[in-house]
Amino acid sequence: MATGTKRIPRAIREQQMLDSAIRVFADLGYHSASMDAIARDAAISKPMLYLYYGSKEELFAACVTRESGRLIDHLTSVAAGGEGARRSLEGVVEAFLEYVDEHTDSWNVVYRQAAAEPRFRAEVDKTRSVLVDLTTDLLEQNSRERRDRGLLEVVATALVGAGEAVADRVA
């Protein structure tokens, strides 16, 4: 009979590593966090962490990509599930602030740390662009008269920026 721990499927182990990395990056910051601290939090060996994610930069990028995707998926789902354009827009704003409140570590890593690092800023900008497009679509659907999409994008950019500022203040 073999002894040892039960083998955890790769996909689950990867998510556990990312969860630990988010916690450690949120607590210590990108520059102060170490692969040792992340491996310790994940209860795995550092070589295993390097096997899955070749460097701290690669691990951080994976965290940013996953957390950005989760936010986008959540808000897109809320927008699609609203009853009417106005309710969808209101629902997205509420869902955004609730998401940030419930995922403060994620917000800290993606919008505070990644946004401040030039090598990760592109992913944050991409997420922001998706949120601006989503908001522009909702504004367009909510408008009683035909509006210029460029103008609606400006308004959406202001709304997304305001939402980020509020979230940053309360997170």
Question: Can you tell me the residue ranges where pLDDT is under 50 for at least 5 consecutive residues?
Answer: none
**Tally of individual helices:** 8
The gyration radius over C-alpha positions equals 19 Å
Major sheet details: none
Overview features:
171 residues, mainly alpha, 77% helix
Task: Please explain how this structure is put together.
The chain has 171 residues and is an all-alpha fold. It is 77% helix and 0% strand. It has 8 helices and no strands. It has helices at 10-28, 35-42, 46-52, 56-81, 85-102, 104-113, 121-142, 149-170. α1 packs across α6 (104-113) and α7 (121-142) packs across α8. The longest helix is centred in the middle third of the chain and has 26 residues, at 56-81. The termini are far apart. The model has no long low-confidence stretch (mean pLDDT 90).
In short:
This protein has helices at residues 10-28, 35-42, 46-52, 56-81, 85-102, 104-113, 121-142, 149-170. By secondary structure, it is mainly α.
